[in-house]
Design a protein that fits this description.
Helix content: 10-25%
CATH topology of the largest domain: Rossmann fold
Distance between the termini: 54 Å
Shape: globular
Strand content: 25-35%
CATH superfamily of the largest domain: Peptidase S8/S53 domain
Strand order of the largest sheet: 7-8-6-10-12-14-15
Structural class: alpha/beta
Radius of gyration: 23 Å
Length: 596
């Protein structure tokens, strides 16, 4: 593969800083970044190929065992070669040329259809950072303390500062900024492609960010040149910048530690590398990578791309959650429905929208039923000082001096939430990912401005820490909360056990509830309708496959009992659906008891 094609292949995964930070307007910058994002999302030169356990190809990625896959690729005019295996036993295959997204999907389907031993095949998509930067220590960080659009952090710091909690920032790596370096521990560079890595080598133990600048059209398609973003350094500073040092900025959880996992480089990063980083960061095993000595309790992913959540990413998220790690992701910056962007639409994550200084939805922020909460992301359409201020680097391409800057985006909102999660876990380390999510939602404050479909509200740091200290989290007595009429909008319930007071709002109503069931535990779900009604009970796994159901008659109790026989925690969904009888606040009542 020649270098021009390699550059184009790698280049499709990242949204970079503008060529000139000062003096350029957000609309011009957004246009350039949108073109780059389109190029990133539109091409790949890799395929992820998973064979069923026990097959020859699962154990050995040789041409004989994978003959049918190679034949299918050849018929499509593509040559494949084995690159490596990932943390889930899938093979990452290198293609001999770039494919458009539609071509890559068609190739994946052809390969899967050709061989019954294939469990799944999917494009190894390239994702990109999610921010809309511009440019200009504590007095500038309105996003922590202002009552309208801020996080309500000062009273939270009287109760928790994040001590003892490890956070992983899966991003571009970091610069050893004087206002951040003391809170960095360990780290790893997961970028195997030397062009994308831009540091002269492949995977290694250094997560330092060498810069991610690109020339015009270098990433495939048509886009402007972009300077280095130093995105991971800005994100990490919001979470855990050194504080009370009479210099620079503060971090939300300034006594927490950050483990950087570098997955985004020149032109972005590949899904397969990101999934391995999620696994490693949360304490899982990745072949060829040393064990993470500092497993993270919460992961920040301020990255994404268009499309549905792929199997590789979902498997990594499921594994992380099973190890007790909270995964927080950016909703995206396309002013569109977040359901169409990954990993924002993956199951089991906390998806974050962005508000500006007025507490209203930032003009760029994605929205929709998959969004869980919102946090300050900045909105510099009203002025640079309305952005999020954090640590950065002054280099336009290669690293330069330490600096600070205003950025805006859901990438900036996400680390605010991650910092709050660290404050919560420092107060109560026993919290599960579902409990954390439930607390963030139940303690969020109402939007002071227009933020339709931005989740439960703006995250309230102080109230969330109080909830963590109280040990609640959605168990006990729970009131059913709309909208929860789909798996993607399911209400999070913690099994303490939990008793849900629900209502069938209409004859077309569906109520979904998301539960985490520990390894080896048995879920008992019991639905009691009102005496004149017949509501039915269903259970689904995280892929939406029905596992069990109960459809007894009017006034009768429906019950499902199901054991999690896997070796890790699983996410299941309980659905209550109308069949006949009453509806509404008076005649549509039911009780749902969940226990394990």
């Amino acid at each position: 593969m020649n270098r021009l094609l390699l550059a184009a292949a790698a280049a499709a995964a990242m949204l970079l800083a503008p060529a000139a930070r000062a003096g350029s307007g957000p609309e011009t910058e957004d246009g350039a970044r949108s073109a780059l994002e389109a190029a990133i999302s539109g091409h790949t030169d890799r395929l992820i190929l998973k064979y069923r356990s026990g097959t020859a190809a699962f154990a050995h990625a040789d041409s004989q065992a994978m003959a049918l896959a190679h034949e299918a690729a050849n018929r499509a005019g593509v040559q494949m070669r084995y690159l490596r295996s990932n943390a889930f036993g899938a093979h990452v295959m290198k293609l001999d040329h770039l494919l458009a997204a539609s071509e890559a999907r068609a190739l994946a389907k052809a390969v899967a259809d050709a061989d019954g031993d294939v469990e799944y095949a999917e494009p190894d998509r390239r994702l990109h950072v999610l921010f809309t930067p511009n440019d200009t220590s504590y007095n500038l960080q309105w996003h922590y303390y202002e009552a309208t659009g801020g996080l309500n952090t000062p009273p939270a710091w009287d109760k928790s500062t994040g001590t003892g909690v490890v956070v992983s920032v899966i991003d571009t790596g970091y610069r050893p900024h004087a206002d951040l370096a003391a809170n960095i521990v360990g780290g790893y560079d997961f970028i195997g492609d030397t062009f994308v890595a831009n540091d002269g080598n492949g995977r290694d133990s250094s997560a330092l960010d060498p810069g991610d600048w690109v020339a015009a059209n270098e990433c495939g398609g048509t886009h402007a040149a972009q300077n280095s973003s130093w995105h991971g350094t800005h994100v990490a500073g919001t979470i855990a910048a050194v504080t009370n040092n009479a210099s620079g900025v503060a971090g939300v959880a300034f006594n927490a530690k950050v483990v950087p996992a570098r997955v985004l480089g020149k032109c972005g990063g590949y899904t397969s590398d990101i999934a391995d980083a999620i696994t490693w960061a949360s304490g899982g095993s990745v072949s060829g990578v040393p064990t993470n000595a500092n497993p993270a309790r919460v992961i920040n992913m301020s990255l994404g791309g268009s499309g549905s959540c792929d199997s590789t990413t979902q498997a990594a998220i499921n594994g992380a959650r099973g190890r007790g790690t909270v995964v927080v992701v950016a909703a995206g910056n396309s002013n569109a429905n977040a359901a169409n962007f990954t990993p924002a639409n993956c199951a089991g994550v906390v998806t974050v929208a962005a508000v500006g200084r007025t507490g209203a939805r930032a003009y760029y922020s994605n929205y929709g039923s998959v969004v869980d909460v919102a946090a300050p992301g900045g909105d510099m359409s009203g002025g640079t000082a309305n952005g999020v201020y954090s640590t950065l680097n002054a280099g336009t391409t290669s690293p330069g001096a330490d600096s600070y800057a205003y950025y805006q985006g859901t990438s900036m909102a996400t680390p605010h939430v991650v910092g709050v999660v660290a404050l919560m876990l420092a107060k109560n380390s026993a919290l599960t990912p579902d409990q954390v999510e439930s607390m963030l939602k139940s303690t969020a404050r109402a939007f002071p401005g227009n933020c339709a479909q931005c989740g439960a509200g703006i995250v309230n740091a102080s109230a969330a820490v109080d909830a963590a200290a109280g040990g609640g989290g959605g168990g006990g007595n729970v009131t059913e909360t709309e909208p929860n009429d789909s798996i993607s909008a399911a209400q999070v319930i913690t099994l303490n056990p939990a008793t849900v007071a629900g209502t069938m709002g209409s004859s077309t109503d569906n109520d979904y509830f998301r539960l985490t069931v520990a390894a080896g535990k048995t879920l008992t779900s019991k639905l009691t309708p009102n005496a004149s009604s017949d509501y039915d009970l269903y259970l689904y796994n995280s892929s939406g496959t029905r596992l069990a159901y109960s459809i007894n008659g009017t006034g009768q109790v429906d019950q499902i009992t199901r054991t999690n026989t896997s070796g890790s925690a699983v996410t299941w969904y309980v659905r209550v659906v109308y069949y006949s009888g009453g509806t509404g606040a008076t005649n549509g009542k039911y009780t749902l008891v969940e226990s394990q």
